[in-house]
Specification:
Strand order of the largest sheet of chain A: 1-2
Largest sheet of chain A: 2 strands, antiparallel
Low-confidence stretches of chain B: none
Helix content of chain B: 25-40%
Largest interface: A-B, 28 and 31 residues
Low-confidence stretches of chain A: none
Structural class of chain A: mainly alpha
Strand content of chain B: 25-35%
Shape of chain A: globular
Order of helices and strands of chain B: EEEHEEHEHHHEHEHEEHHEE
Oligomer: heterodimer
Strand content of chain A: under 5%
Number of strands of chain B: 12
Largest sheet of chain B: 6 strands, mixed
Order of helices and strands of chain A: HHHHEEHEEHHHHHHHHH
Number of helices of chain B: 9
Mean pLDDT of chain B: 90
Chain lengths: ~325, ~260
């Protein structure tokens, strides 16, 4: 099969799954609704279940899609950035860093906001960026990255940030629910305000990464070679680091830490359609969105009456895959 | 006329200078080979004169204009680089790799044009990489990979070409073939070519000038007929050789001397 046919096939499958996922997300939930109810709402504007369909289920499906898309795009960028298919926003420590920043803002009670972006978003971004910059500086040697150093520094920095987050939560708020939200992720607080942050962030970052996708193909070859092929290496690297952190931190602000999505999805997409970032960025975003939408569906329906943190679902799927990857590299 | 003028170039990787006080100029349309022992600084010099190293002092003039005044994109339209063998982390196909050479002639969002396509077809033909085009780079042999990276550099279509040991990993038929291709590009398209080469006998017939590098400095620079002497080789490589005339080219070539063990 030619690469183009592979890409078209993947995209058609994803679009089908997206439609199916949206439908199931709208129909399934604690309040019983059926296809007929949805039909009546959509076609005959029957308002009985409008609140449930639009404000509870559709907003949630859309947000989980956007968070999944952000995390996967962030992962696709970081994997290219570190020339390593095992990088990802969680592995590299950005997610944990961002989560720490968000909790810090919450506890300090800084409540300013501008254009829908709150101080919480700013703190999450700032502390995510500090973590990833630290990991970058520590794991780089002459423009290439040692896998071991990268993974170990990332995991250590992430663990440190997570322990600080837990400390803040238990020290200040003593709320178990909050801890679960920030450390394991959940969409149960999802509302349209979140949408105003994450949607423009995703569109902006997607556009930037698509604009620099060819440069990312060159960066994967190593800095010297990328430069000899015309890439402005240090400028491109800076932009990608900021963009991937923006994506990861804005998704953390919505749903807390959701691990493994940003690691497995881009890797999987690369196996399916190859490493050309012009297509990888786009396909990873869609696939990540669809994947997380289904995970959230599971998280809120698997137990009747209560909700699982979504991080449990993604980790249950992601961790075995991660081990499989580690095994393959040997 | 000098296309590249190097004055007092000193460079390294941030922990000591690898090459020191190198000055020479490269003439337009010239073929120059850099020879020297392993670790003498050949690769470092090739990278440094393309502006790829950070830790650098001295002056490099490209077409009379200071190198650092050029943007990477402008430089990549003027010079192409074939690095020493390296691992590619992701599984790009041969065609994708060669097409990267065309990026510098394309806009950020534009895809390959018909012109790009015909250029890379011609180049894949020239480097015998056509039948490899859908293969993944990691699945190729050393020699095949080398030809792919040479093809990518040619796809950049630049007046200047830098090649770091282009004959490494190649069988002798391909060694000669690659040099024949380079020679043809030099003659037909007036390209300026600089290679680092470890095979002296291969460099001699194709190069107008040789540059012997020793401990990061220039030992000597000149046409092969003057430079290839028993004494020079002894000084640069610490090896005893016989120098004789090649039957076909009339140029000097070296052969190893064997000391019988006593």
């Amino acid at each position: 099969m030619t690469p183009q046919k592979k890409r078209i096939r993947l995209l058609s499958i994803l679009l089908f799954l997206l439609a199916a996922g949206l439908y199931v997300s709208l129909v399934k939930g604690s309040v019983k609704t059926s296809f007929i109810d949805l039909w009546n709402f959509l076609v005959h504007s029957d308002q009985t279940n409008a609140q449930i369909f639009i404000h509870l289920r559709f907003s949630r499906a859309l947000l989980s899609f956007l968070v999944g898309a952000c995390l996967s795009l962030s992962g696709a960028i970081l994997q290219g950035y570190f020339q390593n298919p095992m990088a990802g926003p969680f592995v590299v420590g950005v997610s944990s860093g961002a989560s720490f920043g968000a909790v810090l803002a919450l506890i300090l009670g800084v409540n300013m906001s501008f254009w829908g972006f709150s101080m919480q978003n700013v703190f999450a971004f700032g502390s995510g960026l500090s973590i990833v910059s630290l990991v970058y500086i520590l794991s780089q040697r002459k423009g290439t990255f040692k896998v071991e150093t990268l993974l170990l520094t990332g995991i250590a920095a992430g663990a440190l940030a997570s322990s600080l987050t837990s400390f803040l939560i238990f020290f200040k708020s003593e709320s178990f629910e909050q801890a679960v939200f920030w450390l394991l992720g959940s969409f149960h607080l999802a509302d349209w305000n979140h949408f105003r942050v994450i949607f423009p962030t995703f569109i902006f970052c997607f556009f930037i990464s698509q604009w620099l996708a060819k440069d990312m193909n060159l960066l994967v070859m190593g800095d010297e070679i990328a430069q000899s092929l015309g890439c402005s290496v240090s400028r491109t690297r800076k932009i990608f680091l900021v963009v991937s952190t923006l994506l990861a931190s804005s998704s953390v602000s919505v749903s807390g830490i959701v691990g493994f999505v940003g690691l497995i999805i881009p890797h999987w997409v690369r196996l399916l359609i190859g490493p050309d970032h012009r297509y990888l960025f786009f396909s990873s975003s869609i696939m990540g969105g669809v994947f997380l939408m289904f995970c959230d569906l599971l998280a809120r329906t698997i137990l009747s009456g209560s909700e699982l943190p979504i991080g449990i679902i993604t980790a249950a799927v992601g961790a075995p895959f991660f081990i499989y990857l580690l095994n393959q590299r040997r | 006329m000098a296309i590249l003028e190097i004055q007092d170039l000193t460079a390294g990787y941030g922990n000591g200078d690898i090459i020191k006080n190198i000055s020479f100029s490269l003439n337009k349309g010239e073929f120059l080979s850099v020879l020297g022992r392993n670790g003498s600084g050949k690769s470092t010099m090739i990278k440094a004169i393309q502006g790829l190293l950070m830790d650098i002092s001295g002056k490099i003039l490209l077409d009379g204009k200071e190198m650092s005044a050029h943007k990477p994109r402008e430089l990549a339209q003027k010079m192409a680089y074939v690095p020493q063998m390296f691992e590619v982390s992701f599984e790009f196909t041969v065609e994708e790799i060669i097409l990267m050479g065309r990026y510098v002639h394309q806009g950020k969002f534009t895809c390959i044009t018909a012109a790009d396509k015909s250029i890379i077809e011609e180049i894949m033909d020239l480097t015998e990489t056509t039948r490899l085009k859908n293969k993944k780079i990691a699945h190729l042999s050393g020699g095949e990979r080398q030809r792919v990276f040479i093809a990518r550099a040619l796809a950049q279509d630049t007046p200047l070409l830098f090649l770091d040991e282009p004959s490494a990993h190649l069988d002798i038929n391909y060694q000669v073939e690659i040099y024949q291709i380079l020679k043809r590009l030099q003659e037909e398209k007036n390209k300026t070519i600089l290679t680092a080469e470890h095979n002296i006998n291969l460099a001699v017939p194709y190069s107008q000038r040789l540059l012997f590098l020793q401990n990061g400095g220039i030992h000597s620079l000149g046409p092969p007929s003057e430079l290839i002497t028993k004494q020079n080789i002894q000084e640069v490589f610490h090896t005893d050789v016989d120098v004789r005339k090649n039957l076909h080219s009339g140029l000097p070539e070296i052969s190893l001397t064997f000391k019988k063990q006593e």
